[in-house]
Amino acid sequence: MAISSRLPVEIYYNIFVQLPPADALTCRFLDKFTSAIATAVAFRHVRLEDTSYARITWFEAVARSPYLGGLVVREVTVDTSYLGFPNTDAGAGDFWPLPRPAAFLRTLPCLRLFAGLCTLNIRFGKPAHIRENQRFRDWVLRVVFEVLAGEWSTASQRELDAYCAEYWEGGEEERRQQQDGSDNENRGDDREENSRAVGEDEAIERTPPVRLRTLTISNLGDHAEERLTASPAFGTVLASPEFQELKLLVALRHLDPFGANQQAYNDEQVLDFAESLPRTWLAAPLARNLRVLSLYFSDYWGWTPRMDFRLVNPGEGGFPNLRVLALGNYVFSHDWQADWIAGLGTQNGKGGLQELYLDDCPIMWRARTVGPLDDSVTVLQTGAGEEDDDTGRTTITISNEGYPRKDLMAAGTTVFTPMAVRDYPLRWHHVLRRWTGAAMPTLRVFRMGHGDWDGVEASSVHARLWPPPPRALVPELRRFREQTQLHRRRLRDRAHLTYDSPAPPPDPRRLRRFSRGVGLATAREHILQYVSFNLGLLPQPWVERDDRRHAGDLDRVAEYEASRAADEAALRELLAVVGERNYPSTTARTVVVGGVGRGETRMGKTVPEDII
């Protein structure tokens, strides 16, 4: 009997996933056996982006293919960051962005054809603070959730067509005529065929709900879209038992150089959005099933705009099945925050939270804001008792002491507005010691540092991995620059996705493992950080500095130095405990993050020196 010389399927798969997309497509022509493997790798992740009309039609062709869309595609990225919106609030028909949002929106319902879809990435651009941009974002999310819930219908398509016809159709037709110009006769038939292909008018057949596992959104708007969050489709998707990973990056609006936009710290829409998260994006049905949560804001949050994690599924302790928590720009100010994190994941089958990532998450030591501060309490009733029967209910009382009042913040400030000043005693050694030992017995990964928010580190790695061609090869050089620009654009606003990637490489020769993202930088200047808040310093009220100067004014420098040393000792102790769980026989030789100890960490775990 002849022995087959073919390698196992797993070997081919592991080889193909390391190749660039173009090379993976080429491997489909090796032979019949490897063609199926290369096809599964090449089309496992597809993108819908509006860089050109050809990319839109290509995406729809993949979705409608019986051999690709429903069989091999597992991940889809919907990228609207290429759409160019002006910075003026023009009326309908006064402008049209480049390129074509109408064709983009009409192709979006093709997501329902990806029956095996597991991961959906939605990438918005930076908010332009105009009506058309917000409406476009709302429509993207509405289409996505109705498609995922299996509720996209002919009526929904007609509403979408009406919106596109009202705002975008005129500009698109004009641009198409200008582009085609002299060759209308030669390409008229093809253009007509493409026009029918995208958004064709046909009866829409209901499809089953997509069993999505992971949803990531970059630059989510900071306004509460009640039409979306109150819709049945939104609740259906978030309550699905298969939905287990949510990764959000919220783009907070800021005061622009000309003062045209409201300040995020006084904007009632922003304050309402953050306050509504526990009952919208983090509602109880989702909180019960969630295993991975990455929640990032583009600016500091938690204290203001206030988001109280105690209101998330309070009857079951927040996220009972959570295993991984990543927070970006989250501000610690109260003792309950450390206790709440320590109590997560009690029913996840592992005994508690396993991985914790803090990306630019400082402790606030002082606040100066509109006074007086809140001193009220929030009373919640949880349980399954009847309306007139309190025997099956539990009363939970939540203190709001030490937080700014939303009504006073939204009212704004003048020179006559009374201000309140408060010092917060919480320090990092208080928090870290609570997470050490019995409080979090299953914590195996702990990382604190600064993420690659703008993709600078990843772009640097990409530039060193793939150097440019010689100047003599002009066409190749031009193509290389275009690909580099595209790559850099895709690496932006991904800190909420790459938090668990390796830290920035200290050795430029070991770059291959960083090609898909760079994680948290753990140098001393990025860890154990403190901030203060001063509303009188708008538009930048957050002061990224600890209380060293304040301690000097009060002649308490010795207390400050002792607290700083206690912070570093508590971090060393926590990392040593985490290292003991990962490498129990080599704890005497473990190393910790920069500035606090010697050596390096790998994927948030302390690594023995003989392994590095």
Q: Notable features of this structure?
A:
15% strand; alpha/beta; F-box domain-containing protein; 612 residues; nine-stranded parallel sheet; globular; four-stranded mixed sheet
- Low-confidence segments: 86-98, 182-200, 257-262, 587-612
Estimate the helix proportion, in percent.
Answer: 25-40%
- Average pLDDT works out at 81
Strand adjacency order, main sheet: 1-2-3-4-5-6-7-8-13
Tell me the span between the first and last alpha carbons: 46 Å
Number-wise, the strands total 17
Class from secondary-structure proportions: alpha/beta
Oligomer: single chain
- Overall form: globular
Strand content: 15-25%
Largest sheet: 9 strands, parallel
Global Rg? 26 Å
Helix tally equals 20
Biased composition (Basic and acidic residues): 173-199
Protein name: F-box domain-containing protein
Region (Disordered): 171-203, 493-512
Organism: Monosporascus ibericus
Give an account of the 3D structure:
- With 612 residues, the protein is α/β, with parallel strands linked by helices.
- Among the domains are: 12-42, no CATH class; 456-514, no CATH class.
- 34% of the residues lie in helices and 15% in strands.
- The strands form 4 sheets. The protein has a 9-stranded parallel sheet. The protein has a 4-stranded mixed sheet with strand order 12-9-14-15, with no helix packed on it.
- A hairpin with a 2-residue loop joins strand 16 (601-602) and strand 17.
- The two termini are 46 Å apart.
- Residues 171-203, 493-512 are annotated as: Disordered.
- This is F-box domain-containing protein.
